[in-house]
Amino acid sequence: MITDILAQSEPVFLVSWFKPLVFVVVLVGWAWVVSQLDKDAAYYYLPRIWTNLGQMACGVAGFGLMLLIPIFPVGFVLALAVLCGGISGYAYYRNTKVPESECWTLSLDSFRHRLDQAESRRAQRQATLNLLSKDQELLEVPSGNDPRVVAHARFQDAIDFAIPRGASQIDMVVDSKRAGMVVWIDGVKYPQSAIEPGEAVAMLDYLKTAAGLDLEDRRKKQVGVMYFESDVYGRRAIAVTTAGSTRGITLSLGLDGAQRVEMIVDHIGLLETQKKQLKQLRQQKGKVVIVAVPSKQGATTTLYSLLQEHDPYIESIVTFEEQVVFEIEGVDHNNLPAGTQVQPFNDRLTAMLRADPDVVMISRLPDGTTAQIIANHCQETRFYLNLPADDTKQALRNWVKLVGDHKLAARSLGGIVSQRLVRKLCETCRTAYRPDPAALKKMNLPADKVGDLYHSSGQVVVRDKPQPCPNCHGIGYRGRLGVFELMILDDAARKLIGVGDLDRLRSHLRKQKMLWLQEAGMAKIVEGVTDVKEITRALSEKARSKKKRRTKPSDDKAA
Fold it and tell me: Domain coordinates of the chain in residue numbers?
């Protein structure tokens, strides 16, 4: 009987390629399932030997039926029944031994849950960027149909664009109809690809959660910190700021702000003649030094650079700051919140001045009363003040107005530092050219003393083919430095300020070799540090700012 069956079954397998293929597929699938059951039994300390023997017995019986029954469909169905019976028997036995929460079920929800778990594990393994909470705990990478999947992808796209190019900030604005994202690289905005409002809100909530901010509050300004890490960029901190306004909901991501501050005077962009002038100012006793810099033009960096010219172990140094960007060892940093009232601040300042500090740095001047207190206490104390203005002349007028007395304002003032941040040419891809003599004449540069100049390129040639520069990623610029205008005052200059003769003051300063911003910018072009286009961009912003102020109705009325 058995011989007859084998005689009938053998030719069936030999003439059909499909049936052996099905046999192999079922065998491999069953073997994989049994291996997983063995791991499960080991995990829950079940008797592995007996469970494995049971599965092997079912396997021998099932595949034996598939081979021996001449009618393949019948043998296949019976084999599956035996194999599945063995697996089901293990599942039934297992569920009697493990906690109820760990039991296997055949419900659709359970099946979906297991698929989601598998997909989540795969997402964690494949992730190239992970978010960490403000406590630096690793957060789960979203997967499956989670709306945060798109949010994570958009965030990673922004990081992959921003970090290699040395970006300082990522901004996003979203309302009910539209959303936009820009990356700030060396002070210039680079818009990102369009983003749907729903995706933008999901990204906003995703990052707020990582920073530990309140998801429900859309209006109030919130500030937090989160982290991300990757194999390429390592671990980095991100300052997260969100707020609601008439424009919609805004999100700002600050990328490693404290690490970006270059706080050495010799490295911030001063010309050699300006370094000597600043050294002379440093040697003066007391006096007020004003840092007159518009918003986002490096006032903090310059203040810290000037502060670090002093030795905190020899001199007593105190600061009043809205935000302590970098703590200097030996310096007494005092936080000055943005909402601090004038009188409490003046009381704190007056009390501190009784201790006769050598150096005081103030990041924001509340009002004229504060200026008067400073002007009356700067005989022995050096003050560094942040007083936003477009240039040294405007800052001088503002200081005189705040103090309210020309002579006191002049007597207290040691110098004014104004600046603009300009992008540096990428040294890998900058391109040299011979300037036209007529163009040099317009820039007040001597044609016989100026050699090759440079302009931005953003490309390098590899095997006779232009390609994006690997250093600046096609931008043409990499990093920034300051272009400075220094007004260093001597006794003669202070005398002219005291009588309000600003025209003669200008002539006197020119005799003292003072350079205007435009001239300092031209010097940087000749040095090959930047180009004409960048200097024009940076200084044209100054011109637009002046024009805007002149056209304000409030200014006209005041005049």
Answer: 2-101, 129-259, 265-558
